[in-house]
């Protein structure tokens, strides 16, 4: 993708759709359907406990955290934090090198 397609320092879902549509000369609705399909498939995979690996970009996994005693920062009261699962992203080698070198593909 051409870096001229990126607006500002933050890319959101709408920006990704616009960039895909411009780069691939697609109608916005088609680009939106593609982006939504990819994100939904990734989400569904993580929800069922799977992993998502995109070679050269990185991998998404779900990490499980045990319950623990936390502290309310305002009242300093000890509170029990329930066990939880959180998505985790591990950057791929190519992305890490690109960011470090400041060069996109």
Spatial shape: elongated
Tally of DSSP β-strands: 5
CATH top-level class of the largest domain: Few Secondary Structures
CATH topology of the largest domain: HU Protein, Chain A
Radius of gyration: 19 Å
Strand content: 25-35%
Look at the structure and give the mean pLDDT. Answer: 92
Distance between the termini: 8 Å
CATH superfamily of the largest domain: IHF-like DNA-binding proteins
The SSE string, one letter per element, is HHEEEEEH
The CATH architecture of the largest domain is: Irregular
Strand order of the largest sheet: 1-2-5
Number of domains: 2
Extract low-pLDDT stretches. none
Assign the structural class, choosing from mainly alpha, mainly beta, alpha/beta, alpha+beta, or little secondary structure. Answer: alpha+beta
Largest sheet: 3 strands, antiparallel
Number of helices: 3
Query: How helix-rich are the residues, as a percent range?
Result: 25-40%
Any overview of this molecule?
The chain is of the alpha+beta class. The chain folds into two domains: 1-48, no CATH class; 54-105, HU Protein, Chain A (Irregular). 39% of the residues lie in helices and 26% in strands. Strands 1-2-5 form a three-stranded antiparallel sheet. Strands 3-4 form a two-stranded antiparallel ribbon. β3 and β4 form a beta hairpin. The mean pLDDT is 92.
